[in-house]
């Protein structure tokens, strides 16, 4: 197995362990900061889902500011509460749920009146669970299925005079770290007792169904109640305040209460007095009366439309927390480029869309745990990939710089674009320019090798700059000379013209360079240039160490023209074929002499040759060194 595959496998294993650890840590209550994130994401998903019309099952009779102004005090006097209950009972509701803690005695007449009224109808009263801390988010304890229940120190029950005539349920709700109620516990326990929640009591009475407590779920008759693993009912809000039908208790005192708002309905009596303390933030409101939160839970239970967050959903959360980060890391490893990042981003968008779709369709998949499981390993892996990519880039850049010292720039460029460039030989027309220093061999026997190297480097640099400026490709340096090719990577109409310009520029440039050398060296050096145009075969030669070159008669003629120039006292010999292809008509700053019909070594037939020199220089004969070298 390759080193890269091992690294990817290790990254995937570590990612899976991270995801499993995040999920297990959160499930065991060790990562509370994720609860706040989940609460925020839940509010956002609820807002995206938008307001929904609740099933028309409940009427809230609110003891609001209008009622308090009428009576002059809060809590409402028991006699007034008795009047409210009595009027509602006369309109024959399914059940009356009183979301008020009747735990303190008041005027004897008022208490007696209320007690008698409670005996006239199906009533459920609210009790409260008292916990060790002020927070309603409590730790679970104990073993077995009921060990997950919130354990209270004690229950604050209604006065016996009231409780004797009604059923009782615990009204506490469970708030997240944001303060918004996310669920309502269905069962509460003390050290020796288990009590049903207020919404569950009301729903069971309204449905007239028996309640069964199974090891991992609740049953209302033959219908399962989709609770969380701690028997809590997740809630999702229908909309802002008063989305659930709400009437003021003042309508009872005014005699304007509609029978249709009460008859055969669940009626919840509760306080919505400003400053009463029983308010909670929700996704749609900064403050919603507790009675409407409780009514939302009752509606979920009766209508069966609560959002699902049960054991199966938690299993899905665990799998997503493990598999999604592995998929993202795998995509980044599969494509170490922008494509991998785009693919990973597409997967994250797909997951977010699926999570939102599930939420809006009644399944609450945890988002915070998945993000905590996915973001750190993906960020770390991407960072490592970038670092490794930077190292690889530096390595290949250094390698490229090293190769650049041995390969022509044009060759590097085209090999980078097409690694198979000239792997198959190509026959085409091209222009060839050869240049060679004269007297260099004799000079090398008399001067220091370091000084000789400096001279040769300067000569090569001059050739390279001139060739590149004219668009030519140096196919190779031949010691004290060079071969320049015009026509790769493909033949161009001006190849011959650019080759002619290169030959003339080399003539002038080398002449000036030699003149700049110390006289002891410059007087011993000369040069000769030959240029020709015609068919060549361009190819890559060699096996492990390949080089690009051109072969054929055109190459041989261009090389031999340097000898023709030296033999005729010139420095630049041009074939008639090159001049015709370049459409050369002469130039005001140069002198073209000829033609000379001559044979070249290694070739039968005659070549027509012309010689070029600068106009402002006399036609000097070639030096002895140029004649001999």
Describe what this molecule looks like in 3D.
The chain is of the alpha+beta class and about 625 residues long. It contains 20 helices and 25 strands. The strands form 6 sheets. Strands 18, 19, 20, 21, 22, 23, 24 and 25 form an 8-stranded mixed beta sheet that branches. The two termini are about 60 Å apart.
Q: How big a fraction of the residues is strand?
A: 15-25%
- Main beta sheet: strand number and arrangement? 8 strands, mixed
Give the overall pLDDT as a whole number.
86
Low-confidence stretches: 135-140, 619-629
Helix content bin: 40-55%
> Structural class per helix/strand content?
alpha+beta
Overall 3D form: rod-shaped
Annotation, overall tally of beta strands: 25
Question: What oligomerization state is this entry in?
Answer: single chain
**N-end to C-end Cα span:** 59 Å
Q: Helix count, per DSSP?
A: 20
Output the radius of gyration: 47 Å
Give the helices and strands, then pairings.
Elements (H helix, E strand, L loop, with lengths): L2 H25 L5 H17 L8 E6 L1 H7 L6 H13 L4 E7 L6 H11 L4 E8 L23 E3 L3 H4 L3 E4 L3 E2 L5 E5 L1 E3 L4 E3 L1 H10 L3 E3 L4 E3 L2 E3 L6 E3 L11 E3 L1 H5 L11 E6 L7 E2 L7 E2 H14 L7 H24 L3 H23 L7 H37 L4 H9 L8 E13 L1 H5 L4 H21 L3 E5 L3 E6 L8 H22 L2 H4 L3 E16 L5 E5 L1 H15 L4 E4 H7 L7 E9 L8 E8 L9 H5 L1
Parallel strand pairs: 1-14, 1-15, 2-3, 2-15, 3-5, 21-23
Antiparallel strand pairs: 3-4, 6-7, 7-13, 8-9, 10-11, 11-12, 16-17, 18-20, 18-21, 19-20, 21-22, 23-25, 24-25
């Amino acid at each position: 197995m390759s080193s890269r595959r091992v690294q990817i496998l290790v990254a995937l294993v570590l990612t899976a362990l991270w995801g499993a650890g995040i999920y297990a840590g959160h499930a065991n209550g060790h990562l509370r900061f994720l609860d706040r994130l989940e609460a925020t994401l839940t509010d956002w998903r609820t807002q995206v889902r938008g307001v929904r019309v609740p099933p028309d099952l409940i009427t809230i009779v609110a003891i609001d500011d209008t009622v308090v102004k009428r009576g002059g005090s809060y809590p409402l006097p028991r006699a007034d509460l008795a009047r409210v209950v009595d009027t509602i009972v006369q309109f024959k509701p399914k059940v009356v749920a009183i979301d008020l803690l009747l735990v303190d005695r008041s005027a004897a007449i008022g208490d007696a009146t209320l007690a008698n009224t409670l005996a006239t109808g199906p009533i459920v009263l609210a009790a409260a669970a008292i916990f060790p801390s002020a927070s309603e988010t409590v730790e679970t304890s104990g073993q077995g299925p009921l060990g997950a229940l919130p354990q209270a120190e004690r229950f604050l029950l209604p006065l016996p005079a009231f409780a004797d005539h009604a059923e009782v349920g615990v009204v506490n709700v469970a708030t997240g770290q944001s303060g918004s109620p996310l669920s309502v516990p269905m069962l509460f326990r003390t050290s020796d007792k288990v009590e049903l929640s207020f919404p569950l009591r009301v729903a069971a009475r309204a449905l007239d169904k028996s309640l069964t407590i199974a090891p991992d779920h609740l049953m209302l008759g033959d219908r399962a109640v989709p609770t969380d693993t701690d028997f809590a009912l997740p809630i999702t809000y229908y909309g802002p305040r008063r989305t659930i039908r709400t009437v003021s208790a003042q309508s009872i005192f005014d005699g304007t209460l509609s029978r249709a708002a009460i008859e055969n309905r669940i009626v919840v009596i509760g306080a919505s007095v400003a400053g009463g303390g029983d308010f909670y933030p929700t996704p749609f409101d900064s403050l919603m009366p507790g009675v409407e939160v409780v009514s939302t839970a009752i509606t979920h239970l009766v209508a069966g439309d609560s959002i699902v967050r049960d054991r199966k959903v938690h299993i899905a959360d665990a799998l997503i927390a493990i598999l999604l980060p592995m998929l993202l890391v795998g995509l980044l490893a599969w494509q170490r480029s922008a494509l991998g990042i785009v693919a990973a981003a597409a997967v994250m968008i797909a997951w977010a869309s699926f999570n939102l779709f599930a939420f809006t369709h009644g399944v609450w998949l945890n988002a915070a745990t998945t993000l905590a499981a996915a973001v750190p390993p993906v960020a770390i892996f991407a960072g490592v990939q970038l670092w490794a990519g930077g190292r690889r880039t530096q390595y290949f850049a250094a390698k490229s710089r090293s190769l650049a010292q041995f390969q022509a720039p044009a060759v590097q460029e085209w090999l980078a674009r097409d690694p198979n460039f000239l792997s198959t030989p190509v026959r085409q027309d091209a222009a060839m320019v050869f240049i060679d220093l004269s007297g260099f061999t004799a000079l090398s026997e008399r001067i220091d090798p370091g000084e000789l190297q400096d001279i040769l480097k300067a000569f090569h640099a001059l050739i390279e700059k001139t060739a590149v400026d004219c668009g030519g490709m140096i196919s190779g340096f031949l010691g004290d000379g060079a071969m320049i090719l015009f026509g790769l990577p493909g033949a161009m109409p001006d190849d011959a013209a650019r080759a002619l310009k290169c030959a003339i520029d080399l003539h002038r440039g080398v002449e000036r360079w030699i003149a700049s050398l110390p006289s002891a060296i410059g007087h011993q050096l000369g040069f000769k240039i030959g240029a020709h145009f015609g068919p060549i075969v361009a190819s890559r030669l060699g096996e492990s160490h390949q080089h690009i070159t051109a072969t054929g008669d055109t190459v041989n003629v261009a090389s031999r023209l340097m000898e023709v120039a030296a033999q005729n006292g010139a420095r630049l010999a041009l074939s008639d074929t090159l001049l015709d292809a370049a459409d050369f008509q002469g130039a005001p700053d140069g002198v073209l002499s000829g033609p000379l019909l001559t044979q070249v070594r290694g070739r039968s037939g005659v070549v027509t040759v012309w010689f070029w020199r600068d106009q402002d220089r006399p036609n000097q004969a070639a030096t002895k060194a140029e004649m001999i070298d």
